[in-house]
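tool_call: predict_structure(chain=1)
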Amino acid sequence: MKKFTFRMQVILDMREKELEERQMEMAKILSALNSQKEKLQNILLAQETNKNNLEKLSTSDNFDIPQVELHRDFGIKLISDANNQQRIIANTESILKRKQKEVMEAHQKVEVLKKLKEKQEKEYYQEFLKAETKEIDDITSARFRFQ
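tool_result:
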């Protein structure tokens, strides 16, 4: 018996490779997004620390104006950094959504071909069984004729 071969196997393999590549790209973007969120958390933590240091300076007996201005300026820079980081995170999230859509489309293309392959394989083996049954019937009827 000749083994079943799917005529579109090359295309299926290419689409599976494309799906895998898209998934890798999405994983890289997700990793970058997590890194960016961690960076934002570090900025927010630095803001909190700076705020606490500024409060300590303002309540201390030694009121050092240049030191207070330094912490105030640093606080303003941290606010700007946090806003920039939030914009970067928003952009990365939109890129991630597009990648997820691409992955879903690639996955659907692969699934369509896999279903087609399964259907053709099932039909192939049904035809094989049908031919085998017919052959057995022919052999049996031929034996009865010769007896």
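agent: The helical segments are 9-59, 65-146. Proceeding to next step.
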